Amino acid sequence: MSSLEAILPPLKSESLQCIRRLARYNPPPKRGRLPKRRCAAVAIMLFVGRLGDLHVLLSTRAGNMRTFAHDTALPGGKYEPGDVDQEGTARREAFEEIGVPIDQERIRKLCLLDPFLTGNALIVTPVVFVITDRALTPLLNPDEVSRLFSMPLASFLHTRPSQIPSFPYSISSRLAKLPPGAIDSIPPPPPIHYAQDEGTVGGKEGRFYGWRDVKWGVGLVRMHRFLTGRESEGVKPVYGLTAAILIRAASVGYGVNPEFAVYAPGQSSMDDRIEYEIQYGKGALRRAIESEGLSMDWIISAKL
Predict the structure, then answer these.
(1) In the chain, what are the domains?
(2) Average pLDDT, consecutive stretches of 10 residues, N- to C-terminus, the chain (304 residues)
(3) Within its chain, how far is the Cα of 82 from the centroid?
């Protein structure tokens, strides 16, 4: 770790501690093997900003994408033959989408986070990297990405921009310019609006942070939404899966809980949701488990 710290730009103390915590993090072991055809990975690319804070790269998906066009996302995608592991998938996708080199010195892996279940039955593993090359210039693939920008990683722990170090944007001045459908994103939620006077919705429309509890499977799941400060330029908020992943990364890195409740009342853990989908689901994940001969893994796991 000391060698990594030596080549990074000057860091604030809390940023240095964040890097160290992420580098030490090991997710709990999986309860069983996962089918490769339903596995995916995303790259959380961190870099050190001018003031020593940690920022994360985010992209706007190209308008011609078949799914989630124009959404704000992390670089990532499904496993492909030739990917050695989740890190390999994340590195390949980051290279293909935003031109980040597949170079273990210039792009250092810090850790893998716990996997996430998506609405289309993929198991997504976030892989956290830190960019050490100060001269790195991303190269966007216009077929997949139309824009690249960043936000402070600490953004995903707070409810107001004034609490976020290095957040340079005034959210309130942009409320009237939010484009139609700006908070529509990762399924399964339908188009939504946030209002404090509704029982299952939190945060007024246009506020930096908002949430909505949605029905998913046999229970509720809380969907979080963060404005980027670039909505007047047509950039969508960070929402759904991407928001959940970055909340987790920030919580692990900074060693604190967010100011807001992460889960809906009675919400099952991600591990339990994945296991339920594998054991009792009738969709693509369950079919992949059966076709790849992994059912026994999960039968044994359930008995332990």
Answers:
(1) 2-303 (3.90.79.10)
(2) 78 94 92 90 95 93 74 93 95 95 94 94 96 89 89 94 73 36 34 37 65 87 91 89 97 97 94 88 89 79 53
(3) 24
